[in-house]
Amino acid sequence: MDIMEEISCETADEEEMEIRIPSYPLPQEIQQMDHTEKACRYCGVSYLILHEFQRLQEHLREVERELEQMRGSAERERTLRIELQEAHSHLEELKASVLQHEQTLRALDLQLCVVTREMESMRVEKKTALSELENERACLLHLRSKSVQQQRLLRKTLALLQFSRGEMTTVKNQLTHFLETWDNSKALIQQSCISADAECAHLKQEVDGLQVNLKTLEVEVPKLKSFLEPAREQILQLKNQVQTHKQLQNQYQDACLLIKGLEDEMNSLKLELQNSTHEQEHAKKLLEIKTVEKEDLRVLWREQTDAIERLSRDLREKQESWLSSQQRCQSMQEQLLVWQQKEEAATRRLEWAEGEIKDLREARCTLQQQREELQKTHMGELERLEESFRSRLKATEEHSLKMEAFLQQKQAEQDKQLKQRETELRREAHIELDIQRQKNLELLNKYQNEIQQQQNKIPAVIHSATQVLQEKLSVLQERVKEQEKEMQHIHESSSQRQQQLLQERRTAEAQLQYTLQELRQKTLELNKAHSNIQQLQEERVILEKENSILEETVRRECEEREELTAALTLAKEQLQGFKHCVTKPHDSQTRTQLSRSSVAHPDLPVPRLNPSRPHPQSGNHSSFSTQRNRHSLSGLSSDDVSKSAASWHGSSQPAPTLPKISKKKVTSMNDLCKSFAMLRGRQDKL
């Protein structure tokens, strides 16, 4: 134990005293060389492995940068989720607007019911007006009977009637003006209806275009699903790679079991060494030669202990890297599950958006049908109002014509009667002038008095009749104006409703276009994510290839370590032999001569006192060690060889010596292990 502590202290001092060579770039001549000239033809490892590791480190840095850029995909997903939530809220607002539209339609239906009720009330009023007109006609007949009695007085009333005729012509002109204005307004209404129909046709064309776009989107959805299937296949491939990784772990466990078996072989070799100590008592004469080699062996022992410690550290680092790789594999599996869940959620959201689009289409169709029904009902009511107004105008015109014809007939009859009576009176006057002059004078006086009284009454009657007619005309004009106002109000309300419906359609179409654009953007982002995943998988395949190359290099290093362990076992055997030689320094010189002769003749067999069968598995190690010992013993001096050849009368085997390990090889192995650990750590970060 004291010796081991001293050796460890010395190795630590030597490590502190080591000078580290700075790293310089390779010259261009070496860079332009082929790979076959740079690599070993036996093992395949390049002589410029440090430079290659630097390149790999730079490549890993670039990959880490790209991964850091890809990590921002989580934030993009968050933004996408926020946008989807906003779209969901927007759709809810659209639903609320649709409900409001339904409420407005219900209110319009109620207003239509109210208008129909008002129309019915107007019809009732028409009936009452007709009954009043019939009563007035009866009154007029009664007045006509009175006018027959007052034929003479009607001549004076003709002037007043002519004046009233002029007023009636003015009223007719006003009515014709009203009809012209109505025709103009009707033409404008028809033009507005035609423009509304044209806008409806344009909107239908836009709806057809949107439906075509939706069909294209529906065609693109299965394509996206077809892209999802290869992504799932790639995920299965990744799972298979994870299984291969587990198989490698099992192989590593098998290698550990093999190491344990080798340790058992080491124990068996120790037993064989105990038997060989009895044989080495005959070779005590080699002490004089091996005293010179003790210092070299101590140096080698120190170097080998350093190498063993470094190898043990490397093994620990590799175990830690294996554990970290297992944890990363689990994390990768979890990430894959998360990606699968995200893809399923995206498909669900797409299906939900498609269902909402279908609902919006159905709601839009219902709104269009309701709008068409409202237009039909509105146009029917307008036509009914126009027909009723025309019938009223025709009735008023017919009534006025009848009144004029009746007045003309009355005037003609009165003229005829007056002429007949004048002729009769003249005849009677000529006959009865003489007889009835006195009576006529009395009658004339009476008639004059009566005529004066009737003349006083006639202007009052005419004035009352004209007032009644004027009042009726004013009432009719007011009713016509009210109906025109109602028609204008109905036209304005209908135009406002049409504008509202058009605005609502435009807003709904804009919202649909916005949702379609969002869906297209989301599909593009999904395609980008798939392409990024494929790039990562390709980079992972490249890294796995590099990893396999590094594993091959590690396997070769493990083979070299096994060779080193065989050399260490030989060194331990030699140290035990040295200890026995130190404990027994009183042996004869004949044995030294034997050892020299054995060195001089390495091919001759050495007699063993206690022969024992070697372990079957230690044959390879023993052959390898003998070859190395032969190489090491070839450097002895010629004098020692001549002395040993003369002192021994038989043949003996050469004592094995430990080969010298170059420091450059150990440092290169350590650099390889460190670079491998760094690569594994960066892969784990990835």
Automatic annotation (TrEMBL):
Protein name (Swiss-Prot/TrEMBL): Protein LEKR1 isoform X1
